[in-house]
Amino acid sequence: MLQVKYYFEWLIYFIAFSLVAIIQAAFIFALPAPYVAINLPLIALLFSLLFFKRNTTLILALLMGFWLDILGFNFFGLNILVFLVIVFLADLVLNNWLTNRSLYSFLVLSVLSTFVYDLLLYGIVTIWQSGQPETSLFLFQAYFWKQLLWQIFWSAGFMLLFFNLANSLSKHLKPFFLEKK
Amino acid sequence: MAFYGKKKKSWLWIVAFGLIIVLHFTKVLKPLENLAVSTVKPLAGFLYGTGSSIRHSYEEGQKQKDIISRTDALQQTVAKLTVENAQFKEVEQDNIKLRAQLNFLSANKYKNVLANVISQNLVFDIKEGDQDIVIDKGSNDGIKEGVGVIDENGVIIGKISEVRDNLSKVCLTTNRNCKFAATIQNQTRTMGITEGDLGLTIKMNYIPQSEKINNGDTVITSGLGGNISRGLVIGKVSQINNHSNEIWQDVNIEPLFNLSTLTIVTVLIP
Question: B123 lies in which domain range?
Answer without folding.
Answer: 12-270
